[in-house]
């Protein structure tokens, strides 16, 4: 069954499956949604369905096309990503144009996925626009982005937009259960991922840091400031991921506000937001963390 291993966005599953079954796949799609929500996985599954040559349920996973796709050797499939992690260059789009001009080899169609399409250079975007204006009848292009506002309006107007929704907390818990990790993530960690499996995975990789932050906040009313500074060592050492940890502090304080209706938690969130601005403005890092913890502690002392 198509998309059987993907969680959430059931309406999109039905839409894409229906398009393949009715032989009504369009020439260009724009997959839009937050980072880590599964857009790329959906795109690849959709591509395999389109390319599958079986007359039965697609993807069959046993035909020549499916086997080539699963082996990353399908001649009618190409996936383009930012070459240096920052931009998609005109040379990459020209290569796509060369390949798209060739007739399909294994399947009736050819599928091209462009990851992070908002990172195309202006020249690359203009080059792609020419292809989108007059695509070959057998070509399907799937553009993927987390920031559609950076795309040329002319590119967006030539694509059918598929908007992915953030996963619900229940869907996140279903995913954790499937990974046998349900008991290791706190409710606050699930909220922090904001409906993104990708973010959830990153939190899992840094779970010890998130746990330490939560312990600091849970003890903020019980201990003196010197003890808080010592226990918050993770904040001083986490300069590269400090914004994520500060966001996590906000999640915890807002949940405590909801539970206790104590407006001091609102002030704590304000202090965190001020600290984020200070760090972004290149204020002294350690002093910023010192000040953050002291001011929050004073709220509850």
Report what the structure shows:
The protein has about 300 residues and is of the alpha/beta class. It is built from 15 helices and 5 strands. β2 (about 75-80), α4 and β3 form a beta-alpha-beta unit. The longest helix has 19 residues, at about 240-260. The termini are far apart.
Range of strand content: 5-15%
> Care to count the β-strands?
5
Structural class: alpha/beta
Order of SSEs, N→C? HEHHEHEHEHEHHHHHHHHH
- How far apart the termini lie comes to 58 Å
Number of helices: 15
Label the overall shape.
Answer: elongated
Radius of gyration: 24 Å
Helix content: 40-55%
Mean pLDDT across all residues, rounded?
A: 93
Major β-sheet strand ordering: 2-3-4-1-5
**Biggest beta sheet summary:** 5 strands, parallel
Pick out the low-confidence regions.
none
Give a quick set of tags describing it.
53% helix; 5-stranded parallel sheet; 301 residues
Outline of the structure:
The chain has helices spanning 10-21, 39-51, 64-70, 90-100, 122-133, 153-156, 169-178, 187-192, 197-205, 207-218, 225-231, 233-237, 242-260, 264-280, 285-300, and strands at residues 28-32, 77-80, 110-114, 139-145, 160-163. The chain has 301 residues and is of the alpha/beta class. The longest helix is centred in the last third of the chain and has 19 residues, at 242-260.
Layout of secondary structure:
Layout: H1 10-21, E1 28-32, H2 39-51, H3 64-70, E2 77-80, H4 90-100, E3 110-114, H5 122-133, E4 139-145, H6 153-156, E5 160-163, H7 169-178, H8 187-192, H9 197-205, H10 207-218, H11 225-231, H12 233-237, H13 242-260, H14 264-280, H15 285-300
Parallel strand pairs: 1-4, 1-5, 2-3, 3-4
Helix pairs in contact: 1-2, 4-5, 10-13, 13-14, 14-15
């Amino acid at each position: 069954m198509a998309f059987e291993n993907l969680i959430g966005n059931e309406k999109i599953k039905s839409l894409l499956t229906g398009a393949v079954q009715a032989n009504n796949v369009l020439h260009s799609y724009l997959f839009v949604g937050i980072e880590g929500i599964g857009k790329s996985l959906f795109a690849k599954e959709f591509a395999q369905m389109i390319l599958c040559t079986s007359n039965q349920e697609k993807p069959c996973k046993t035909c020549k096309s499916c086997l080539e796709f699963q082996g990353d050797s399908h001649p009618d499939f190409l996936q383009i990503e930012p070459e240096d992690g920052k931009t998609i260059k005109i040379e990459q789009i020209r290569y796509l144009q060369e390949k798209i001009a060739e007739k399909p080899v294994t399947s009736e169609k050819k599928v091209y996925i462009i990851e992070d399409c908002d990172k195309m250079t202006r020249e690359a975007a203009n080059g792609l626009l020419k292809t989108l204006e007059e695509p070959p009848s057998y070509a399907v292009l799937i553009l993927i982005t987390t920031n559609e506002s950076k795309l040329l309006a002319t590119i967006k107007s030539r694509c059918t937009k598929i908007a992915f929704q953030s996963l619900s907390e229940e869907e996140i818990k279903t995913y954790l259960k499937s990974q046998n990790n349900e008991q290791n993530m706190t409710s606050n960690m699930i909220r922090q991922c904001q409906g993104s499996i990708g973010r959830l995975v990153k939190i899992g990789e840094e779970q010890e840091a998130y746990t330490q932050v939560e312990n600091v906040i849970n003890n903020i009313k019980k201990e003196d400031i010197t003890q808080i500074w010592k226990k918050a060592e993770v904040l001083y050492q986490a300069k590269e991921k400090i914004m994520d940890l500060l966001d996590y502090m906000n999640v915890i304080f807002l949940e405590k506000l909801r539970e206790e209706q104590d407006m001091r938690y609102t002030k704590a969130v304000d202090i965190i937001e001020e600290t984020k601005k200070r760090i972004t403005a290149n204020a002294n890092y350690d002093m910023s963390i010192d000040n953050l913890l002291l001011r929050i502690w004073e709220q509850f002392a």
